[in-house]
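It is worth pausing here to work through a concrete case rather than discussing structure prediction in the abstract. The textbook approach is simple: state the sequence, then state the predicted structure, then interpret. We follow exactly that order.
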Amino acid sequence: MIGKVFNNRYEIKEKLGAGGTALVYMGRDTLLGRLVTIKILREEYAQDPQFVARFRHEAQAVASLSHNNIVSVYDVGYEDTYHYIVMEYVEGPNLKEYIKEKGPLPIEQAVDVTVQILNALEHAHNHGVIHRDIKSHNILFGKEGVVKVTDFGIAMAISDMGQNYLDRSGNVVGSVQYMSPEQVQGLPVSEKSDIYSTGVVLYEMLTGKLPYTGKTPVDVAMQHVKGEALPPHRMNREVPMELSFIVQRAMRKSPDIRYASAAEMRASLLKLGLDAPHNKTGEEKSIAERNSHGRNNTRNRGRNSRGNPKNIIDYRVKWIIIALVIILIFTGIYSMFTIFRALARGEEVTVPNVLGSTKEVAIAELDKNNLGYTLDWRSDNQAAKDTVISQNIAGGQVVKKDRVVGLVLSSGPDPLVVPNITGLLKREAEVTLNNNMFTGSFSEVYDDEVPAGRVISQNPVGNTEVLDKVIVSVLVSKGPEEDLSITVPDLRGKELTKAREEIKEIGLLEGELKKEDSNDYYAGVVIAQSLEANSESTKGSQIVLTVSNGPGPSAKTALVSYTIPNDGNTHTLRIVVDDNTGSHEEYNQQMATGSKFSEYVNFYGTGEITVYVDGNVVSVQPVS
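Step two, the predicted structure:
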């Protein structure tokens, strides 16, 4: 970008900085041979036609402003996708840099800078222009201490696009440290929004710090809406109480109780008697110049009269008389000024009784009666938070206008401390909570580390301060969690009594019992189950059994044949039938070596017949 020339006229010389919406460069107007400031709109804004149109319109509108305390706008243009404005170049630092280097400014200088800012704002407001982004970064020091306010156009373009302090991507637009509450909330702005921001800048000049800080821009923004800044005189003992009151009034949350205009705030500052040269009117400067010119002529005439003693004496007598007359005139003027000043300062008002009022109502009442105030907080178990509980000048007293009334507000009741019961036995925890006037809500969970019966955790945690009695949620350990997995047995064909014993033993819960007619199973025998046999389940699961109403199966026969081994030994032959009636033994006898067995065996429904020889299975025969 360095070396680029816009409009065949404005040459980029060096980069000065970068703001939220524009890049700032020092340039040279090759036509007029002067240094200029060139601001180039950032790409993300330059791609928005609506924003660009508004930006150009507002920049052109600000160019019509002509005031010694406002940075002049010379030109607005577009070239090679760049939108730019050409402005007056100010050599001095901005106020933010100056405070960072010097710290808090002397009281007189801070007042002087603020008055010049208000001069610029009054001129802009009278022409229907609201700045919307007054901050110390936008206050520049010109030659001989003249203050220049800049960035009118960009601030207006952002605001009038319908945005507040967050852009479409959720990023912060502008400096939330200086934004008025109405800007933070996205409400309509007015001249009083600029007055609020000016109050923040004056606060920063007097204390070297910003009134509100936070971890994130959103934290800071919300403090403008709900926070309470420490008064400047509490931050810097050099700040007069009257000046601190002016800052606080400019920074009221409600625009209705701020200064009505820049002129009104400026008048309050000048009333402090901390005038600076930049605040003198043209007439005052002319009088000073005439007085200086007169003194020079007097000295010249004195030199021309030397050498004539009589003339010297006459000359001296005449000027003694003139001097006496001048002294008398100035004495009279001073006396009249003193009288008028005393009368002005002597205006009396009645202090309103604001005891029991909310903070906002009390401040409005004091403002209405032209009284200042200071705020302190003290805990009170009876009064609601932010209610006035005392005032150092009682209501009804008559005092001088602008007297400062000290208010003490309730910070609410003394906080209660939640006892720490973590690790205690449940009974010990209950007693501890009751002794401290708290109620506990107890629940139990498994825990592999905390022994059964002891408190695992609590909410709120121990030693937390709360403003009211709360129910403390307490988790108590049941010890390590047991293995709840089980294998579902096959209960079909078993008598209901035996089936119930089995499900109870393994930890299943019996559901509603069902009954059905069955030709395969006798009455009282389980014929179905809701949980599949041999499937995995957990203890405490429910199983529904279906039991037969009968009549059950009729007897059937199956031929069983087997030849005993011919080994010279006797053997035991045993036959077992497993069918719908269960398991029953049909034969169990000693058999001679080599003998043959062939008989019909009864069975019911379906099943199988198992043949054992000396306890060993030698045959399994399905039957149906």
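Step three, interpretation. The chain is about 30% helix and 30% strand. The longest helix spans residues 309-345.
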